[in-house]
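Handoff note, outgoing to incoming analyst
You'll be picking up this chain. Sequence as last confirmed:
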Amino acid sequence: MSETANALSSRINERLEALGTRRIYPEGETIIQDNSVIRSIPIVKSGAIRVMRVDEEGKELFLYYVKPGESCIMSFLGGMHRERSKIKAVAEEESEILYVPVENLPVLLKEYPEWLDYIFRLYHKRFEELLQVVNEVAFKKMDERILSILKEKKDLTGHAEIHITHQLLAEELGTSRVVVSRLLKQLESEGTVSLGRNKITLL
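Most recent structure output, in case you need it:
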């Protein structure tokens, strides 16, 4: 579990479990759709969620991962203000989610000061991750961005062999499959990665 998750006591975790309901999602299933109504706040119990921004043309850009013990701060803020979702969230691997109804949030904030600290910690972490995304989009070349996201997936799963298609990788990076395939071939020739059917191995 993350440092953010460890900040919550067993007392508030028991309260969250009592208020929420659990659901398991298989790898690749959409958990939160862009522009959907937010009725519950998701807290990841196991697995990981990939969060993306979707533009008007349907193009996606990877923002950050939500790991066990964490929640999606964008969903939290949207639920608090009765706004529609501004992100899309997909299960990066099989994931179990605890859903806490948004109407319970004000009570939790009032009864548990540590819940507010938990939210601020999440907000700070996501802000830093979003700054990193801006930095990569603005200043890094596409081959560097490809390696960066592959390394992040390796750190997330603990495996150097990453099961992903060139098309899905291109969607996460907000570019075309042709560009990704060309750069992956270049990285393979340099001995940085090894390419297989629907998989990429970091060397």
